[in-house]
Amino acid sequence: MTAPRNLRLKLLDAAPLLLLAAVLLAFGAVSPRFLAPANLLQILVQASSLGIVAVGMTLVLLTGGVDLSAGSLMYLSAGVSGWLLLRGFPLPLALAAALATGVIAGLANGLLVSRVRLMPFVVTLATLYLWRGVGLNLTQTRAMNLPEGILRLAAARLAGVPAPVWILAGVLAGAHVVLTRTQFGRQIYAAGNDAAGARRAGVPVARILVAAYAASGLCAALSGLVAVAQLGAVSPTFGSQREFAAIAAAVLGGASLFGGRGTVFPGTLIGAVLIQAIENGLVVTGADPYLFPLITAAVIFAAVFLDSARRRNLENLHRRKVRGPAVQETSSP
């Protein structure tokens, strides 16, 4: 029985990649233009902002938490940069201020979760409204058209690849190295698997939580900058509900909503590209715009289903491993 369960788990782990391949083939069959190299590159460019914020979300999910404020923080950070740029401040200062805003807001989330011991869902649901309220007050609920300088950042290319894709690659590489090659990465997994046990083992769980939420805030801010550099404007709805797409991308990529399991590469990357490929494919094939929310709902259901299925299979394998020696011992003469 163990072999079929292992095979089932491997298939569940490979499900995001299989889904991505199915989406590419399906939309490619409907419209050959979908698989054109230029459109595939455009999908990566469009997925860059979502992928960046999903990396930060993955770090928080690994700890067993969630960051519902990520979309609002994208808006607040983009609003800070726009507010400064429109008042004549230099571009580097505006970008630095936006990133600092993300880190500070993330630290606030992390401290409330780790020190005050509030539920991550409650904390980040409250700050979802708080950060957007601060952003709306800063922008006076008006759209801000930004100078061309920030648009040139998104249009820049290196070796023929647009800057947003390089930024996404850098974030993915950094997070992947941290999670797989550092003590901090091992401690994140330990805190998500069993926080109490990790504390007894000497893991500074509170500091790990603060760092994870600060990283999520930084990724949300950077994601907001990448998105606003592509759009050239900050509207009052900028970043709205983007946190849910980020959660779906992370979970589709293999991250567990219960913590302790997941990867940013290739996991979260595949999830983000899958979601963006579906959105792009619907546009390219001229699908009814009213279908978009329904497709988004289906993607979220798929993410939750895959996470639940993985968790059940892992629990079954764990129970079998624990019971195996005991059964052999009692059956021996």
Could you describe the 3D structure shown?
With 333 residues, the chain is mainly alpha-helical. The protein has one domain (14-313): ABC transporter involved in vitamin B12 uptake, BtuC. Helix content is 78%, strand content 2%. It contains 13 helices and four strands. The chain has helices at 2-30, 37-62, 70-85, 91-114, 120-139, 148-155, 163-181, 183-193, 195-200, 205-231, 242-252, 264-284, 291-331; strands spanning 144-145, 157-158, 161-162, 233-234. A two-stranded antiparallel ribbon has the order 1-4. The chain has a two-stranded antiparallel sheet with strand order 2-3. Strand 2 and strand 3 form a beta hairpin. It starts with a helix and ends with a helix. The model is unreliable at 326-333 (pLDDT under 50).
Features:
ABC transporter involved in vitamin B12 uptake, BtuC; 13 helices; 333 residues; two-stranded antiparallel ribbon; disordered C terminus
Number of domains: 1
**Largest sheet properties:** 2 strands, antiparallel
- Summing up helix and strand content along with how strands pair, one would put the structural category as mainly alpha
CATH class: Mainly Alpha
CATH architecture: Orthogonal Bundle
Order of helices and strands: HHHHHEHEEHHHHEHHH
Q: How would you write the strand order of the largest sheet?
A: 1-4
Secondary structure: helix percent: over 70%
Q: Termini distance? A: 25 Å
CATH fold label: ABC transporter involved in vitamin B12 uptake, BtuC
Global mean pLDDT: 89
Using only C-alpha atoms, the radius of gyration works out to 21 Å
Estimate the global geometry from the Cα principal axes.
Answer: globular
Low-confidence stretches: 326-333
Number of helices: 13
Q: Beta fraction of the residues?
A: under 5%
Q: Total strand count, please?
A: 4
